Amino acid sequence: MNDEDKHRTLRLLQKTAGMTANQRLVVMLYAVHPTDRAGTVVETAAELAKLVGLSPTVFSRTRRQVIDAGWLEESERLAHIRYYRLKPEAMGENVVVEMRRAT
C-alpha cells in the first residue's frame, strides 16, 4: 500500500465516522477488496460475509443499508446474483466531465 492509498483509506474512514461499525466494515471491504476493471467486487455476499466474520444475513442487511445511504451501487447481475461497487462519489472522485462549447 503506497502513501496515496493510505491517505485515501484514512479519508474514507473519516467520511464514514457517523456510520455503525458493520456499515463501516462493509464500505471499507468494498473500498479495499480486489475489483474488476469496472470497480466491481466479484464475490457473492456469502463469500464476503465469511471474509469479515459476519453471517450472510447480517452482511446482506448491512449492505442494503449502505446502498440506501448512497455508498454502493449495483454494477452487474448474473442470474439472481447481484454484484456491487463503491460509488466513485463515495471516494470523492470527480465523475462529472465539464461540458465545453463546440468550436
Show the helix and strand layout.
Elements lengths: L2 H13 L5 H12 L7 E2 L3 H8 L3 H13 L3 E7 L2 E6 L17
Antiparallel strand pairs: 1-3, 2-3
What is the total number of structural domains? 1
Classify the beta-strand content into a percent band.
5-15%
Estimated structural class: alpha+beta
Question: What is the overall pLDDT average?
Answer: 87
- Summarize the amount of helix as a percent range: 40-55%
CATH class membership: Mainly Alpha
**Per the principal axes of the C-alpha atoms, what is the gross shape?**
globular
Biggest sheet features: 3 strands, antiparallel
Q: What is the CA-CA span between the terminal residues?
A: 44 Å
Could you list the spans in which at least 5 consecutive residues all have pLDDT below 50? Answer: none
Strand element count: 3
Q: Which properties best describe this structure?
A:
single chain, 103 residues, alpha+beta, 3-stranded antiparallel sheet, 45% helix, Replication initiation protein, RepL2
How does this model look, in words?
There is one protein chain. Helix content is 45%, strand content 15%. The chain is an alpha+beta fold and 103 residues long. The protein has a single domain (3-90), classed as Arc Repressor Mutant, subunit A (Orthogonal Bundle). Strands 1-3-2 form a 3-stranded antiparallel beta sheet. α2 (21-32) crosses α4 (56-68) and α3 crosses α4 (56-68). The radius of gyration is 15 Å and the shape is globular. The mean pLDDT is 87. This is Replication initiation protein, RepL2.
